[in-house]
Amino acid sequence: MGNVRIIIVATFALGVSVAFADKLSDFEEAAAVVDSQPRGKAGCKSIPYGDHRSNCESQGSKVHEWCDGGSRGPVTCVSENITRQLKNNLEKETKAVEALKEKKNNLERDQSRASADDEKNKIGKEIEQAKKEIEEGEKRVEQAKKDLEARKKLVEDAIYTIDQCIAYRRAVQNSFAAALDRVRNENETPRITELARKLRNSYEEGKPGHEVQITDKENALKTCKDSRP
Fold this sequence. Notes:
Blueprint lengths: L1 H35 L13 H18 L12 H34 L3 H67 L6 H37 L3
């Protein structure tokens, strides 16, 4: 019975020793990543906990996809003034066509009242010119409508893309926040405590960068929402 107890204790001690060795290795690898990168820029591989690191990497892989303005869609609407200018242009071109139509109607009334052929012919030429101008004006109106519709689509696409970008950036930020909470309490051995301090400092230095990125996208999102026609 005594021998069995000794074997069990020895096996438990060995298991604990292996666990500490694995944990130390994880922390050393994470700290090496910190040392190899600019301050506060170590990335997900600087997280020594497999669950948080895996979540950070899976979410982080989507950040560039959704935040860089590539295949997923636009991530900026530049300025709400663009929408306002397009709406003003459509209104201006529409009013211009309406004025030309009114001018043509007046000319047609004048022509119907004219008695002399010369005067009728003269007004007829003005009517034809007005018709041409109306046709050109209606083309400009159609183009202005297309421009505004294209702007509307860009704005809606950007709102969706930026929303996704912010969600993924926050997920990455949350992974680091969870890792930060854990490294603050690491004290199994002096070496792990030392490495945990290095990781803690790295996460804290990187936090403002995450917040700036999110704030920038939140500002871009507000601009897009204000840009809706």
